[in-house]
Amino acid sequence: MKDFDQLVSVWQGQPKRDQLSVDEALKQVKKGMGSLNKKLLRGITSMMVGFISVFLTMLFLAFESWVTYLGIGIMLSTMLLYVLVMVRDYRLITKQDVTTNPTEYLQSLKEYQHRRADMYGWLYYLYVLLLSIGLSLYFFEVLQSSSPTFKYSAYGITAAWLLFCTFYLRGRILKNEQEKLNLMIDRLVRLQGQFE
């Protein structure tokens, strides 16, 4: 019996979890989502600038080989696909307000987190693969008259950059974004739990 009393006293002595302030939690979630919105808008804008640049290159430069146009077409298609995915994600997280219906907002935030994890998963590898194929086909004609040293340097630098983005930057970006999303989701879940 003495052990039971000791267990009860230890149990009751546990610090209670702090109650989350509704205003503070919602303000932090809105701030975090604002940061993600800006990041997505920057991504969409930069991808569109790249798309327009590649399109103008195809439009105003005359290439002799159809392989070059195929490479540019693959790059344009890949970039357009990536922009459409980012726009869909942007619309998903901006269509609802956390203050109007927190439960629906929490569900859309979880859906966004899952979709971003998928996008940075297999879709990102597909994106890099198609972009690499498009660049290789584009470089086929563009670097044809260059010296072998310059050709190998151009291919090497491009391959190194794509590998760096794929295996280093992608992981860091995904980890950082997932941590932010987990923190926001945790705050909303805790807030939801307080009202149940």
UniProtKB/TrEMBL annotation:
Regions crossing the membrane: 40-63, 69-87, 122-140, 152-169
Keyword annotations from UniProtKB, A to Z: Membrane, Transmembrane, Transmembrane helix
Name used for this protein in its record: Uncharacterized protein
Lineage: Bacteria, Pseudomonadati, Bacteroidota, Sphingobacteriia, Sphingobacteriales
